[in-house]
Structures are given as structure tokens and as C-alpha cells.
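Obj.: predict assembly geometry.
Materials: sequence records (below).
Method: joint structure prediction, all chains together.
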Amino acid sequence: MGARLNALPRTRSGSALLGAVGVALALLLWQLAPALGLVPSDDLPGAGAVLSKLASLAGTDAFWSAVGSTLAGAGLGLLIAVVVGVALGVLMGSSQVAWHALRPTVEFLRPVPGVALIPVAILVFGPSMQSDVFLVAFGCVWVMLVQTLYGVREVDEVALQTARSYGLTHAQRIRWVQLPSSLPYIATGLRIASSIALIVAVTAELVAGNAGLGKAISLAQSVGQTEEMYALIVAAGILGIAVHVLFGGLERRFLHWHQSQRAGGDR
Amino acid sequence: MRRLRLGWLGVEVGATALIVAALWLYTNTNESYAVAPLGDVLESFRATWLFDHVGSDAVPSLVRMTLGYAAAIAIGVAGGFLLGSSAVANAIASPVVGFLRSIPAAALLPPAIVLFGIGGGTKVAVIAFVCCWPIMLNTSDGVRELDATLLATARVYGIRGARRLRLVVLPAVAPRIFAGMRTSLSIAILLLVTSEMVASTNGIGYFVFQAQQQFSVDDMWAGVLLLGLLGFTLNLAFGAVERRVLRWNVRDDRSK
Amino acid sequence: MLEVVGLSKSYGTGAGATHAVAHLEFAVEELEFVGIVGPSGAGKTTLLKCMAGLLEPTSGQTLLRGKPVTAPPPELAVVFQDYSRSLFAWMSVRRNVLLPLTNKPEIADPARVTEEALAAVGLAGFEDHYPWQLSGGMQQRVAIARALAYQPKVLLMDEPFASVDAQTRAELEDLVLRVREQFGVTVVLVTHDIDEAVYMSDRVVVLSRPPSTVQEVVTVNLPRPRDQVETKALPEFAALRAQIYETIMQPRAVQLA
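Observations (raw C-alpha cells):
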């Protein structure tokens, strides 16, 4: 029996089965803990109550509007971060002058916690979508910059020299050699940045009150609607998974033709 | 060669000076209420954080983060070893762990407040809970990727049990653990600041938020500056520690 | 000293099973140098791992001085092909060699033994270096020093020179022959290099294709000490390697016991 149990994870269906067992166990625990009084059921409603609340929320406009706001803020901010980050990354990666000129500033700004700027965003934009976008853009631009930088610099020397020997100009080399080969890195950056975008958006909404899931969660907590609060959190988690799957898939598509040695991407 | 390097250093310093000067000019001429002259911000920084509010705000912030981060490391490494050693345990736990870590970190603050109230302990708990996942997952990966030859060598030379864990397994998994710790560090900082803005009566995050609410723009920017310095210093310190502990790990490694 | 009796190793069960090794039998005398060769895919490494107690055979056993081997015994040391994964990168050379000795309380002066082993492989002065600072050949020498310091009766080597360049390989081959004399160990060397097997061994065990059994045991009567130039110039050397080569290339009917 022990041997057969150990063999299960080796097959895909075996792993899926075990995973399902895990989920079932977790849900059971979640349902029982408040029911048995281990946790005050006001503070932590059981799984059944929360999930059914989520189901009913999914039928409301307010819920989807909140999800939409979060996604819009995160998406727009991500877009800006990609454009600015890739542009700067290409610049710094292909020009020694730009690299040396901008490096100290980038190195200092990079570790600044994006959330530190939330009060600034509140001050400038008030609780609004622009606030979300601004913060997400700031939080994500560094990842895109660094990844693009890696990508541009990791370009195969031979490919570059071949291009040079065929008389391609600097701009042409960027367009035809460096940019395409840095695409996998950019794809990795997108995956990492997309999670950051979601986290920053929800955080900003939570703190500043911009419209979105974060604000909905905070509101539910402040009026004591704990079921709704947990339901929204579960929704946020599902959103997180969806984003991860989407951009992870995108990354894999860009990577499948690329050699496996590349930077970045821990979990 | 040396002249070239000095030349680049000059570019770095010069360009940065230019950027700072531009910033000075911008903040001094811009009329917006959100922009404070750079000089005033620096003055506020000196007045507040050197060293007036250090004890009342900076220290509690750092203590909370350190406790939460330390707990996350302990839980993450222990859990990671557990998951990594048993394929069955890993398969069972994977979907649940995967879901839990997909929840945007800050979203867990409200339930934490509901469950534990607004206290220092809540913030530590949230940081510990959220930050343990990247460490746990990386550790678990590291354990599963342990090289067969390495383990066979340990068996041949009779290195077993606790000795094997301490002298062979832990160092071998260390690079992975550090990768997880690096990710968790950013999350810890994020959670610290957020939790202090949302549910606190002191701390750097609280200070910045309050300053904004009261339209003390100088103080707000000074606080932001401090947070920036904090993030910068922590990352620097982490890098230094990592390089020292992993100084033997010289491979053709392209990561970071 | 070492006896392999009816050793078989299969992976999986039923119709899809892989039989790596089937009913292998041979013996190794004390202080002998035995080489094991065979075609690619022959279970050479599987055999070595079973002999070392790292792998449990499906049937049969290995006897070390009459006692069955169920786990790596303290009288046995192994040198693996991939030195970079066998040495502990986070420990200095000295620590790498010293560490196994803490399991051998009978060794009175481990520090001295460590120094002697490192000197014997030509690495005196490198004790405080780390593996990443050493070349491939030097790293393998550390692995050999570690095995020697362990004071085993039997030294098993799994294609130890396959990952280094030809010149380093020749140096290491001679090194192993020298230290064998010096330290008095029985050596079993698994290799895909027929020249190497003939050059170093007293006898060469030739395996068949999987399921591998012993096809032939060739006695190598070349004079010792061996020399890279002179020994390899002898007509007997050429004859022996030709004989082994032909045995390997010729697929023969395999008889399962």
C-alpha cells in the first residue's frame, strides 16, 4: 500500500488525485474549524457559507465592476510599465553611455517599495483609477527594465557580429537581432510583472480606496460582512491564478524555441 | 584601461548629479501642492528621522518586519523540507498552496484584522503567513532537485541523519532558499508598509500616511525617502549576506 | 575479497520491465586491479552501484570478505564520474577529505591522514582551496584523495576519468596506479575506454549487452609498473585490446540462469 501510494505522484492522474484530496481536506478543515468552535464563526465563516456567498456575488454587477476596475488599473499600469521598461531596457542594454548614465538612478529607485508612493498617489490623483495605474506602473517598470536589459545583453555575440558584418546599423541590429532574442526574457518579465501588477492594484485599492476588489474587501471588513470579505478574497485568489496561468502560458510560448539558459524567474 | 573605467565613473556621477539637479529645479518651480522643494524635503528628513522618530516609528516597523520575516524563513524552510522529501505530501499540498499564494498579499490584511485585531502581532502574523510561501516552494524545489551523486557520496562515506542535513543537504539547497528569501523580502516590505498604513498607530508607513492626510507634504516625501532608503539598504544587505554565505557557489549562473 | 554472486537487477515489473543486469558472477582478489568494460548501455554503472550497496539488486548479492553488502560498508569507497557533484562545493579541499573520517574513530590522526592523502595525489598546498577554484582534473584528485584517506579495502571507480581531457586522464591513470601500490587497495574500475581498462588492470571483466552478464574475463599479463608509452607499445597490449574489442562488438547469445 505504501509503495503504491508513493507511485501515485509519478503519474499525472495520480498527482491530480492527490491534489484533489488536498483541496478536499483543506475545505473540510475550513468548514469544520468554525463549526466546531475552534474559531469564532463570526470571524471565520465556514467554507460552505463563504463559497455560496461567492456564487451569489458572481451574479451581481457590483462584483464584476470591482473586478473590472482592478483588472483595468492593473492592466493599464502594466502596459505603461512594459512600454517604458522595455524602451529603457533596450536603451541601457545597447548603449554603454545610457547604461552608465542611468544605472545609479535605476539602482536606487528599484528597491523603493511601490506602496510607499500610495500616499503620494492619493495626494495627486485622489482615490481613482489613475492612482491605481500610476502605482502599478511604478511597481512593474523595474522588472520589465531589468529583464529587457538581461535579454538585450545576453544576445549571442556571434549573432551580433554577423549582423554587424552585414552592415546593419545600430537601430537595425536592435530591431532584428537584439529585440527578438530578448523576447523570452521580456516574456518572463511580463509573467513576474503581472503578479506584481495585481498585488499593487489590490493594495492601492485597499489603502487608498480606489475602486476595485481591494476596496470591496476593505469595505466588507469595516461593515462586518465577513462572509463577503472572505468570498472576495477567494475571488482575488482565483484572479491571481488566472493571471499567472495566462502570462505563464505566454511565457512558455515564447520560450519553447529558446535555449533554456536565461535569467530571472524564481517563484 | 583605468582611464576608461574612470571615464565611466565620471559619467555615472555626472549623470546622477544632473538628474538630482533637474529634480531640485523641478520641485522648486512646480506649483502643485503635491510637490515639495527638494531642500525642504531633506530638511524634514533630517528633523524627523535623524533621530527624532526613529524610536517611535522606525524601530517598531523594523522589529515587526524582522519577526515576521524570521518566522517566514523558519516555517518556509521546514515546510519546504517536508514537501520536498515526500512526493505524496507535495502532490497533496500543491493546489492548496498554489491557491493561497495567488491571493494578493494585502488582501489578507482585513481578515487578519478581523481575526487578530489591530496589534503588532497581527502584522507579524500576516508577514509570516504570506512570506513563507516563496521560501517554502523554493526550498521544496531545491530538496527535490538534490543531486543523486551528491546523496550517493554521502551514503558511501556514512554521512547520515542530522549530520547529512546540516553538512550536505542544507548547503546544497541554500541557493534555492536564498532565492525564495529574496522574493519574500520584497513582499515583507510591501506588507509592512501597507499594514502600517491601514491598521496601525505607529510605524513609518503610518507616519507617511498621516502626513499625507494632514497635507504635510514635506514630511510625506521625507517618509517616502526613508522607505526608499530602507528598501535600498535591505536589498543591499541581503545581497551582501547572500554573497558571503553562498561564496562557494561559483557556477556559470546567469540568474540575477 | 569481493565476490559478485548471481547478481541481477531489473527495473519495473511485468512486460515493460528493463533488465539491466542478469546473473552476473565474478570475483576480485585482494589487491587486484579489475577493470569492467562493456558496450554502451551495458549495466556497468548499475553493477557498480549494486556492488557498493547503493542499489538493491533484484536477486543475488555482493559479498565483501564473505559478508553480504546491503548498504555502503566502511571498508569501501567510491569515486564517481561527476566530481563536481560529488565534492561538497561549500567545503574546502581539506574539509572534503576530512569529513568522512569522522565516521572512522579507528583512524587516530585524521588530520595527518588527510595531509598524506592530498600529498599523495599531488595537491599538497591546496588544502584551503575550494572546489570551484580547481580544474576538473584537480577536483577528481580531491575525490581520489578523499577515497584514499577513508582507508578502504576496496576502491570502486565509476568512469572516473570520462569527464576530463585526454592528457589529464593519462596523468590520473598513473596516479591511481601509484597510490594503489602506496596504499594497498583493491580497485574495481568501470570504464568505457578499453585502452584504459587494459592499461590499468590485472584482469578485465567484459560485460555483454543488457541484460548484461559476464561474457569473458581477460587476464592482463603485462608487466608492472605500467608506462603510458612503453606498455602501450607492447604487442601484447594491442592483442589484448583487440580481443576485448571484438568480444564487445560481437553480439553473443545471452544465457539467463
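Conclusions so far: Chain C is about 35% helix and 25% strand.
To do: check interface contacts against the pulldown list.
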